[in-house]
């Protein structure tokens, strides 16, 4: 089996996952329902490069939805929050756990999703055109 097909499949799956996440965030951002939330946990992980300077930070936020349900959700955005930081979460009351987001507007959710998909498309084009080999030819 050709390695390129495996990489293309991985990128395609990542793109589908990103599209699903963007759709859920859009539902939350479009609903207009907000709730005060707090950052309850911050954790870091080394990226795939293994460099100690290349760490990915994740945040866990929590809030109480209108129906009294306790909702925790992850956000791996570029902003840095400390534990206890207050933020505003947006969510769809029909499904708060899946649609909770910090995206302030539908435009912000779409922008985040579009940037992720554009980067994945770039990686896909690079592998389809044998970019690394053509770069040094």
Radius of gyration: 18 Å
Assembly state of the chains shown: single chain
The helix tally amounts to: 4
> How many E strands?
4
Low-confidence stretches: none
Q: Indicate the percent of residues in helices.
A: 40-55%
Q: Which percent range describes the beta-strand content?
A: 25-35%
**3D shape:** elongated
Order of helices and strands: HEEEEHHH
Give the mean pLDDT.
77
The largest β sheet comes out as: 4 strands, antiparallel
Spatial strand sequence of the major β-sheet = 3-2-1-4
Rounded to the nearest angstrom, the distance between the terminal CA atoms is 25 Å
Structural class by secondary-structure content:
alpha+beta
Structure description:
Helix 1 (3-31) packs antiparallel against helix 3. The protein has 137 residues and is of the alpha+beta class. The model has no long low-confidence stretch (mean pLDDT 77). The protein is built from 4 helices and 4 strands; from the N terminus they run αββββααα. The chain has helices at residues 3-31, 96-99, 106-128, 131-135; strands at residues 33-46, 55-64, 70-75, 86-91. It has a 4-stranded antiparallel sheet with strand order 3-2-1-4.
Name some characteristics of this structure.
137 residues; alpha+beta; four-stranded antiparallel sheet; 45% helix; elongated
What is the topology?
Blueprint lengths: L2 H29 L1 E14 L8 E10 L5 E6 L10 E6 L4 H4 L6 H23 L2 H5 L2
Antiparallel strand pairs: 1-2, 1-4, 2-3
Helix pairs in contact: 1-3
What's the short story on this structure?
With 137 residues, the protein is α+β, with helices and mostly antiparallel strands. Helices cover 45% and strands 26% of the residues.
């Amino acid at each position: 089996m050709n390695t390129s097909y495996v990489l293309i499949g991985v990128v395609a799956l990542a793109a589908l996952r990103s599209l699903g996440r963007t759709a859920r965030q859009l539902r939350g951002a479009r609903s207009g329902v907000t709730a005060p939330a707090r950052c309850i946990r911050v954790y870091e992980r080394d990226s795939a490069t293994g460099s100690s300077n290349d760490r990915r930070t994740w945040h866990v936020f929590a809030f109480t939805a209108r129906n009294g349900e306790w909702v925790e959700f992850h956000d791996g955005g570029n902003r840095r929050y400390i534990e206890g930081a207050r933020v505003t979460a947006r969510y769809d009351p029909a499904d708060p756990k899946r649609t909770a987001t910090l995206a302030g507007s539908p435009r912000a959710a779409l922008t985040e999703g579009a940037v992720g998909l554009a980067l994945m498309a770039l990686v896909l084009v690079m592998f389809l055109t044998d970019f690394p080999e053509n770069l040094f030819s």
